[in-house]
Amino acid sequence: MASRNNIVLDVERLRMRYDETDVLHDVTFQARRGEVLVMLGPNGAGKTTTIEILEGFRRRSAGRVDVLGTDPEHGDEQWRARVGVVLQSWRDHAKWRVRELITHLGAFYAPYATPGVPRPWDADELIELVGLTEHTGAKIATLSGGQRRRLDVAIGIVGRPELLFMDEPTAGFDPAARRDFHDLVHRLADLEDTTVLLTTHDLDEAEKLADRILILAGGRIIADGSPDELSRSVAGEAQVSWTADDQRFVHTTTESTKFVHELFRQHGDGIGDLEVRRASLEDTYMTLVRRAESGADDLAVHSLTEVTR
């Protein structure tokens, strides 16, 4: 088990109420240093509200929230320098040039540098990191949508944050830019030891990036675990396919291990191209959200969360 010092986010029984409506119900989770946590959920599930509370931009109604050892409601400038936020779009300073803006914003972080974390990030290194070297002298107004999103990421990490929040970071990215972004996230987590919490509606992206996935529905966390753990948590059928005697066979079973064992017992080396396909993350996500929205009782939801944690 990770030591307490490795816990970067610690949220316990977080609640948020607007007038008479509860939009968050006892949300509880943790994130460790260097972990990539992806938050999924339908629109209105409470993802943005949760992140805004963690960022210190919204006051919660109840519960305990600890972000980098501080209650974000009372975070000072030194605390905020350790937190990065990638907004959905950076709309200001259209007449600035890319390098000028990065250098200007980075200067605000210099007073908060430490021996272990030099701040800010070198402007040219950061611009190369996000793939904007060819546009370093371009005015922001001339950038394409995908290039603007790269700039958004650069602005969010210019202070070398220990914790990075990103809301739909790859909206507007083409496949190549999305792949580059995924490489960047892995570098931040693996080499810079940055903890990343992001939201996305792209389940394929979530599966590629996440160490752990949180699924919110109706203001509650209905599942918490790795993509593989979540897929195994949903009891269902697996599809087994194989070849034998130059023929292709497909069989659906709820006991894939037992079936494959029997298959090899009967046919041995005659089995080829064996594949077992379990529920995908999309299958799992849709199943869990449908259960929650259909009014599945709280006990079932909580027991699933405990199993996958």
How are the elements arranged and paired?
Layout: E1 7-18, E2 21-32, E3 36-40, H1 47-55, E4 62-67, H2 77-80, E5 83-86, H3 98-107, H4 123-129, H5 145-157, E6 163-167, H6 175-190, E7 195-199, H7 203-209, E8 212-217, E9 220-225, H8 227-233, E10 238-244, E11 247-253, H9 256-267, E12 272-277, H10 281-293, H11 298-308
Helix pairs in contact: 8-10
Instruction: Please state roughly what percent of the residues sit in beta strands, choosing from under 5%, 5-15%, 15-25%, 25-35%, 35-45% or over 45%.
Output: 25-35%
Average pLDDT over all residues: 86
Tally of extended strands?
A: 12
> How many individual domains?
2
CATH topology of the largest domain: Rossmann fold
**Could you tell me how far the N terminus lies from the C terminus, measured between alpha carbons in angstroms?**
12 Å
Structural class: alpha/beta
Contiguous helical run count? 11
Radius of gyration: 22 Å
Order of the strands making up the biggest sheet: 5-6-7-3-8-9
- Corresponding CATH superfamily of the largest domain: P-loop containing nucleotide triphosphate hydrolases
**What level of helicity do the residues show?**
25-40%
Membrane topology: Peripheral membrane protein
GO cellular component, one term: plasma membrane
GO molecular function: ATP binding; ATP hydrolysis activity
Protein name: Multidrug ABC transporter ATP-binding protein
